[in-house]
Design brief:
Blueprint: H1 13-25, H2 31-59, H3 64-72, H4 75-92, H5 95-113
Helix pairs in contact: 2-3, 2-4, 2-5, 4-5
Length: about 110
């Protein structure tokens, strides 16, 4: 296999995205990274951006169904992150893992309500 072979050039965007979800669902990502980076930092930033966009759409007096659709679009992603944390924490065990499970549940409630 030479350097120009597709397998050597790295994953495609779709493969990378599928790999992202697969690795988290299967618990191959460290719990600290999954909780703090993926959920608390990145997830919260994405949710804030979505909420701001929904508020802008509401301010522009666009239909309520569109505003609600934008606001709730991320619920499946939020559920995924929460369940991924739970699955990984169950494998890890311990008090820290239990606190991260509780934190992820509270984070999910906050992102859906806010």
């Amino acid at each position: 296999m030479d350097e120009s072979h597709p397998a050597r050039t790295g994953p495609s965007k779709f493969g990378g995205l599928a790999g992202f979800f697969r690795s988290r669902w299967q618990g191959r990502v460290p719990l600290d990274r999954l909780f703090w980076r993926d959920m608390v930092l990145v997830g919260t930033a994405i949710n804030i951006a979505s909420s701001v966009l929904a508020l802008i759409l509401l301010g522009l007096k666009l239909p309520l169904w569109l505003v609600l659709a934008v606001h709730f679009t991320l619920v499946p992603y939020n559920l995924f992150l929460t369940f991924a944390v739970w699955r990984t924490a169950e494998k890890s065990g311990g008090g820290k893992a239990s606190l991260m499970m509780l934190g992820s549940a509270l984070w999910l409630i906050a992102t859906v309500v806010a």
